[in-house]
Structure formats: C-alpha cells, structure tokens
Amino acid sequence: MADPYSTLGISRNASEKDIKSAYRTLAKELHPDRNKDNPQATERFSKVTQAYDLLTDKEKRGQFDRGEIDGDGNPTSPFGMGGRGGGGFHGGGQRSYSSQDFGGMGGESPDLSDLFEGIFGRGGPGMGGAGMGGRAGTRGGHRAPPRKGADVRYRLKVPFTDAASRKDQRITLSDGKTIDLKLPAGVEDGTQMRLKGKGEAGPGGAGDGLVTIEIDSHAFFERDGDDVRLDLPLTLNEAVNGAKVRVPTVDGAVMLTVAAGSSSGRVLRLKGKGFTRKNGDRGDQLVRLEIILPDDVSELASRLEGWEDAQNARSALGE
User: Fold this and answer.
1) Residue 300 has pLDDT above 90, yes or no
2) Which of 42, 77, 110, 280 has its CA 20 to 30 A from that of 139?
3) Could you give the 3-state DSSP secondary structure of residue 114?
4) Mean pLDDT in the chain?
5) Which GO terms describe its cellular component (predicted)?
6) pLDDT (0 to 100) of residue 48
7) What is the mean pLDDT of residues 137-141?
C-alpha cells in the first residue's frame, strides 16, 4: 500500500505549500521529458503525481488520514467491504501517466500547466507552449485562457518644467517605436503609468508597458506640494522704489510688479503657475523677494538716508 506522504517525502502535518514544494522538486527531477531512457523515473513520476493528487484533494486527504482509503485511493475495510474500488467509491484505482497523457488529466489532476511553468518555463520543454502534450492547459475541466506576454518596464526622466506644465514626453519602446506620452494630472516623482499592449507579445495578447516617472531637479525652482517656489533677487533700488521685473515660471517668463518699499523675504503669488492637481486645477508659484545689497556700504547709507527723507516729505504733504 502506497503512503503518499512517504512518496513525497513530507510529514503528515505538511501544509499545502509544503506539498506543492515537494512535488515541484520531485517532478523537476523525474519528469519524463528529462528521463526518456529511464522507465523507472517515469514510473516513480506517476506515483509522485498520484500522491500529489490525493493530498491536494482535501476530502481524499481527510479520508486517507482517517484510514477510509489507502494510498491508491481505494476504500479500506470496512469502508470498501474488502474489495478494491468497491462500494461505488469514485476516484479510486491506480492511474499511470505517460508524457502523452498530461494534457487530458481533467479536473481530478493537478493543474500541471501552471505547476510546470515555474519548473521548465512557460508550457515546459516539448509541451507545445499552451499546455502539456501540445494541448491547451485545463483548470477544473475548463480550458485555461492563453497567457499574455510579459510586461516591459521603463524609466522616464522628465524635466521639472515639463512635469509642472504636463508637456508631452517622447519615449522609445522596446520594439524601437516612439510614442508621445501625455503626463497625468497629479504627476510626481515615482508616478507609474501603464501603456496597454506595449509589452512583449504572447499567445493571449501583448503585455503592458509600465513607465515610472522620474522628475529632474531644477536650478532655481523648487516643488512644494502642488506649488512651485522661487527666490527672486532684487536690487535695493527696485525694492525701495518699486519696479516691474521679469520672473521665470514653468510656463515661461512673466512680468511681476514689485511694490515700492518691499522688504526682503516678502512672498508674492503667481496664480496657476504650479503643478496640475488630480482634479485638473493648478497650484501657484510663490516668489520670495531677496534683496541684493551693494558692495559699497557708504553708498547704501546715503541711499537709505535719501529714501527716509523722501518718505518724511510725503508724510508731511499728506501723501
């Protein structure tokens, strides 16, 4: 009488994972395609597969553990009244397998098309790709759908200003073709985009392209959530008297009005010049004024004195 636990070399309290792992190891060693001139290996492969069948069927495993059936799946006395396969018990009787039988094992057998994918590669050697013996694999008696091709991963570096303005990016695929990629709203460093059907070809259709976005840093822009920050240098004269200054933004330069008497550190806001949020709105650009003092301190003192006199005169006139 065969003991399926001994056949697979596992203990009686082995988990389903342990059973599958043991079977994978033995099947890789004993598979008929690797032992064409070794009938003993083929016979042992048959027994290993039968043991795997029984132990992965929870009902049959329980019956075996309770002594209701033997290792071949036959009822034991008194359940089978002393006869092999008696009492109308279904699923009993020893089976033997050859490499030509693997495609039609039906619902009672392990799904070898899945199992051997990790052992010999997709479909296994000499198995016709779609299933063993050149037939399509089955699961529970139903034809398994053909597998899609593998996904292909890409990394795309995007300039800071392009990411903020969502400028289309050109990417070259693994097949040499180039496409223009529209950046999604809410894009950030590490965002992943899926390109349907842009992976490797397969019997069930092409896989997908998976693009990971890497946003480059910028020389003077800095991201703050969905806003963009910029330190803007001003001369003392521009800060004291006010001026219209040219300011770079992610969408191009604009003219910004700086009020007279502006102090260093003051932040001005340019609406809608930041990153696009997921709802389609855009953040702002925050411009921090940075006054650059002249090298000649005496000149600075005279300028400040003149500015104070002008302010006092304006106050006296009620301006």
Assistant:
1) no
2) 42
3) helix
4) 79
5) cytoplasm
6) 87
7) 49
Other beta carbons within 10 angstroms of residue 187's beta carbon come to 19
88 CB-contact burial (10 Å; exposed 0-12 / middle 13-18 / buried 19+): exposed
Q: What residue type is 9 in one-letter code?
A: G
Query: Right CATH number for 221-316 from 1.10.20.10, 3.40.50.300, 1.10.760.10, 2.60.260.20?
Result: 2.60.260.20
The answer to whether the CB of 209 falls within 8 A of the CB of 254 is no
- C-alpha span between 219 and 105 (Å, rounded): 65
Q: What is the CATH number of domain 4-143?
A: 1.10.287.110
Residue bearing tokens 């411009």 = 287
Higher pLDDT, 110 or 27: 27
Tokens of 76: 């034991």
Q: What's the CA gap between 208 and 226, in Å, rounded? A: 29
pLDDT band at 298 (very low <50, low <70, confident <90, very high): low
CA separation for the pair 201, 211 (Å, rounded): 18
Is the bond into 78 cis (omega within 30 degrees of 0)?
yes
The mean per-residue pLDDT over the stretch 196-206 comes to: 90
